Amino acid sequence: MNRRYRHTIIAGNWKMNKTAKETKEFAEEMKKLWTVRPKWCDTVICVPACNISTATKAFKELRIAVGAENVYFEPNGAFTGEIAADMLSDLNVKYVIVGHSERRQYFGETDQTVNKKVHAVLNAGMSPIICVGESLEEREKGITDELIALQVKSALSGVSAEQVRRCVIAYEPVWAIGTGRTATAEQAGEVCKNIRSTIRTLYGARVSRSITIQYGGSMNEKNAKELLAQPDIDGGLIGGAALVPEKFLAIINAANQDQE
Ligand code: PEP
After folding, report:
1. Under CATH, which architecture does the 59-71+79-250 domain have?
2. Ligand 1 in contact with 237 (CB < 6 A)?
3. Annotated catalytic residue within 69, 100, 134, 221
4. Which atom from ligand 1 is nearest to the alpha carbon of 176?
5. Ligand 1: distance of its center to the CA of 238 in Å?
6. Catalytic residue list contains 7
């Protein structure tokens, strides 16, 4: 983390978990446990679309921003089952996950649709959390850096320097998501450093210094401190551990520690 230049953001991704009732119970539990407000980090939880309104009310006192897990890029029309960016911002959504590997893998999301979604989110005044990451096969082939650079460049195609300041990039190695297998702090830190250097090439040093880059992939209460100690890791995108108040809070506390 480098708090001098950028925000630390801890974001949960609940995926297809928790009913409205369970969302309220989570908030109540957090209220009991959360005694010290985080001074140094912003917190977000991205919830299933049907629970956005419930979460917005339940998390208000906790000052946890509510995020969405997906969006469609068209503004309206005959797209049964999809949700437009304006519909999300209307519900006070602040962040939208775009290009999560599960969406790329199971729902045919491509670098092109990711780019369109990034524009839709930005145009609606929200912040995209843009997920990039390599598969195990790609890592073993030694093409991680070029692949991630390509994903970042495609996602940001046509995005202005002004707009990119609102973007968050999440480095999520596919082999580490939901597997319990975390990238080492050095591996994660190295890729996040390379992402920053790609941003520098595209937008210059000042912009690249200010962009929040998260790590995601089995981040938990045990490994968060070490991962967040890497200078180019400015937070986390957290799946499994964000479903459990004690674990999510422990990660927030790791991000909120004083920095020398
Ligand atoms: C994720 O879904 O973005 C994620 C990182 O999941 P997990 O923490 O469970 O690996």
Report:
1. Alpha-Beta Barrel (3.20)
2. yes
3. 100
4. 10
5. 5
6. no
Q: How far is CA 35 from each of CA 74, 235, 236, 249, rounded to the nearest angstrom?
A: 42, 21, 21, 10
Show pLDDT as tens, one digit a residue, over the chain (260 residues). 777 789 999 999 999 999 999 999 999 999 999 887 777 899 999 999 999 999 999 999 999 999 999 999 999 999 999 999 999 999 999 999 999 999 999 999 999 999 999 999 999 999 999 999 999 999 999 999 999 999 999 999 999 999 999 999 999 999 888 788 888 999 999 999 999 999 999 999 999 999 999 999 999 999 999 999 999 999 999 999 999 999 999 999 999 886 64
In the annotation, is 172 catalytic? Answer: yes
Nearby residues of 78 by Cβ (< 8 Å), 6 or more positions away:
none
pTM metric for this prediction: 0.96
Ordered by start, the domain boundaries in the chain are: 59-71+79-250
Which residue puts its alpha carbon closest to atom 4 of ligand 1? 239
